[in-house]
Design brief:
Distance between the termini: 46 Å
Strand content: 35-45%
Number of helices: 3
Number of strands: 13
Largest sheet: 6 strands, antiparallel
Helix content: under 10%
Shape: globular
CATH superfamily: Jelly Rolls
Radius of gyration: 16 Å
CATH class: Mainly Beta
Order of helices and strands: EEEEHEEEEEEEEEHH
Strand order of the largest sheet: 1-2-10-7-12-5
Structural class: mainly beta
């Protein structure tokens, strides 16, 4: 997938409140490319909140069709791609906008800011994809007890995965997550 060079740094709103899709300038030549992935002052100037990242994580994925999620962790995230591309899917699992879905293709020239409470998932579109994200809380043992999980195949969210889930690489754990109707019931007490 060819990168788009030279686009300006910009943030775009999404249907999910507080979530922003970001264009990142990528500069390339015959040697490869360079990007400034995160620069606090510039990100604040385009409208990102000052979310105070404390940890950087990288998920490396060998195969096309590797699919991870849908997980809503108890922290905000700034997600970008170091190599390759992904189809990203986000589902708002917060009460006020519950069930709203947004999808986009991310490559090294795009990023997304995801507020806590929004479920995050992705599917790799290229081999050897490196997915990186800044978070504003430290991971600790037992953290998954604070996550909200949603099934990748949820009928109500109706995410149109580029590679059908039957042909994708998923964990057994991700296959077993609850549906939106079950989360709605849990949320109502």
């Amino acid at each position: 997938m060819p990168l788009e060079y030279g686009k300006p740094l910009a943030a775009h709103s999404t249907p999910i409140p507080g979530m922003l899709l970001i264009d990142l300038p990528v500069h390339g030549d015959n040697r490869g490319w360079f990007k400034e992935n995160w620069q606090r002052e510039k990100m604040l100037a385009i409208g990102l909140p000052d979310f105070g990242p404390v940890q950087n994580n990288i998920s490396f994925n060998d195969a096309v069709g590797t699919t991870r999620g849908i997980h809503a962790e108890p922290w905000d995230k700034f997600i970008s791609i170091a190599f390759g591309s992904v189809f990203g899917a986000w589902v708002d699992l917060r009460p006020d906008n519950f069930g709203t879905v947004f999808t986009a293709v991310l490559d090294p020239s795009t990023a997304i800011y995801v507020p806590r409470g929004v479920g995050n998932a992705y599917q790799t579109l290229e081999p050897n994809t490196a997915y990186t994200y800044l978070v504003n809380d430290h991971w600790k043992p037992g953290a998954q007890a604070e996550y909200t999980f949603l099934n990748l195949a949820d009928e109500e969210a109706a995410i149109e995965w580029p590679i059908p889930l039957e042909q994708a690489e998923l964990s057994d754990k991700d296959r077993a997550h609850p549906r939106l109707r079950e989360l709605r019931t849990m949320d109502q007490g």
